[in-house]
């Protein structure tokens, strides 16, 4: 038998020396121009595994910053370190999205309500009344496709507008800022927040060691952490979240004049969130809570809507601010630049097939139309490459644009041909240009248009030297705490308590003492009171204050950042449960149900049994059974019972818990006299939100936050 040849030296070396996760030389830490942490090997380290390299063995000098044309300039395509890092990250999982895997989508229409031709030549914003179809995908970020809807997480808010100038994809979140400043760090951020690599849990949760270890070393994330620990990340409904483009973009008019712009989606129903206890219980009661809510609202004709707003400002304004408008960890306070409403988006049709539409839709931040352009935001610049690249991995072909949900609704022509899963059948032989085939009577194909084609905004010298090629952040990027402090101080006392309690919960899941201490030390740069509350909640000594690269400055608080300060006292879009049982008064139930529906809400009948139940005045069918319809699924509850039924239900845990949770979650409870026995058993005390049935309309579905201190300990 022939002897098996030895593997080649090249193969032996490559496989033997590739040891991911090794490299135990203690790094030397120093801070960069934007206060980013560089952990570097001291020169002359003997262990080859100590040196960070690309996949071809090239040692990397800077793993924190992408290569830019000037410190505030655009990211350069020649940055092979960035491209390889994101390229590999984009293809790590097949075929599920690496982030934003769990999503819900719907079709709708966008209408321009205020034309702004002086600011932009974007066709959809030229004339009041102009419309175009849209598709929207809402999503969680950290969890897989099979995770639940209600974890504490950022929500993706991606809109595809099918305009007559091509697709415009506004791919954002329900929070206006982000964790990181440079796309170079996105793989690291997501790796840290995903399930821990050795154990595969926790799923869809940031309350674990690796995430908070990363956060404690990345002070640029602290503004986003304030948002992430606030009630913004536990929304009541996808219909009640804001949307943001996150980045600074540009509007460009017909004269080629440009101004900066921030995009906002404002929900017509207002913003509403759950409490943390509710979110946890909803996950168990209905893992598809948000998806079901969106689908059922549209199916019932209660079409959710959002107003599109813009914050427009120029370079002169930007240069005067104590922050950099190209920094994705910063926002523009609405008090400084008011949001101008220019359109309304209404979702009016559910998808016909979840996979074909919601799962296969591909959003690209690079999909813009004439009149909209990019800024030099380094996080945005990296996304322009990453999203296009990742679609090839997910959808298997460069022809993903031919899938109906992704295809534009205007003509498109080019010389791109063939490729896997090609469904078009180009004719003729013109697949290149320039060509002169038309001179022989053949079809010569399309050509570029200097007059109507997309033209990139030309200026690149706004506080930037484009002649330089640097791995460097602008100095203002180093102020990581001023806006985090602004956000925290803009909240109500109750909302501040929620943030502190969320931090205590998350950090209590961290097993590494030094990580907890470092994060609390960072919090001292935001607010001493917050840091003390969190330290007390963790039963640790207040750690030393972490050094801030730039001392935070006090900014004027902004009421626009608070959910509770902007709460709409409305029944529209809200769901109220009415508990009844055998013998309940049908006339009283019908009246309450009618009042709720006439005010724009939805009434949901709950009973111990479903099916036809004999009541006073006829028969009623319940929409849901008591044990399967906990009060966490509703915005308010009401009860119309007989004394006999109330006595019987007081011995059932599900009924007692139904009222106990509604009370504990600060919801309105409307009841008749007979229900008082149940309320006493549940520990429900009389207050402004516990009222008689005939008083329900006056308190509606508002939350009664003054009650919260009586029902739970807050940090």
Structure description:
- By secondary structure, the protein is of the alpha+beta class.
- 26% of the residues lie in helices and 16% in strands.
- It has 20 helices and 20 strands.
- The chain has helices at 9-17, 80-90, 186-193, 209-217, 222-228, 276-285, 289-299, 315-320, 355-359, 378-395, 482-489, 493-508, 513-523, 528-538, 586-598, 643-649, 653-664, 676-682, 696-699, 708-711; strands spanning 28-31, 37-40, 103-112, 131-140, 155-163, 166-173, 243-244, 249-252, 258-267, 305-313, 340-350, 372-373, 575-579, 602-607, 611-615, 618-622, 624-625, 636-639, 668-671, 690-692.
- The strands form four sheets. Strands 3, 4, 5, 6, 7, 8, 9, 10, 11 and 12 form a ten-stranded antiparallel sheet that branches.
- A hairpin with a 2-residue loop joins strand 5 and strand 6.
- Helix 13 (513-523) packs antiparallel against helix 14 (528-538).
- It is globular and about 90 Å long.
